[in-house]
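for the recovery benchmark. tokens below, seq after
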């Protein structure tokens, strides 16, 4: 039985899932699936653009970095392993930061997509995201 949708609360930490419990379906029908993919596409575009812009401004990375981030996000969702998680931190309706964790092996996890936008830094968001990722992988 699918769980109820969560309320989109200001400042919430949103967990994006790619499959349900015991690999059950997470979509009601094709319309629901297409709606999710549309929203996911917007997140990928925004994440790619924000990561690319932030890293080009702060660390002088070139446009190849932005393309690399986009391909990693797509690969993350195509992999669809129950262990893998992505969280997006929202503040006042804006995406403030993100983090993902992937399983490399039974004993090793990989942190990826950690980003806190400049205007939201200094508020403990990176620590909150890291704590969430660590708590999930620690079981």
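predicted aa per position
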């Amino acid at each position: 039985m699918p769980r109820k949708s969560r309320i989109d609360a200001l400042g919430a930490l949103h967990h994006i899932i790619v499959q349900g419990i015991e690999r059950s379906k997470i979509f009601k029908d094709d319309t629901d699936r297409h709606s999710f993919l549309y929203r996911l596409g917007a997140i990928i575009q925004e994440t790619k653009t924000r990561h690319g812009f932030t890293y080009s401004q702060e660390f002088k990375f070139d446009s190849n970095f932005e393309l690399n981030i986009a391909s990693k996000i797509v690969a993350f969702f195509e992999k669809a392993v129950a262990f893998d998680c992505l969280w997006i931190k929202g503040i006042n309706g804006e995406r403030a930061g993100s983090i993902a964790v992937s399983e490399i092996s039974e004993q090793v996890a990989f942190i990826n997509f950690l980003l806190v936008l400049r205007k939201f830094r200094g508020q403990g968001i990176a620590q909150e995201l890291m704590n969430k990722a660590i708590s999930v992988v620690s079981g």
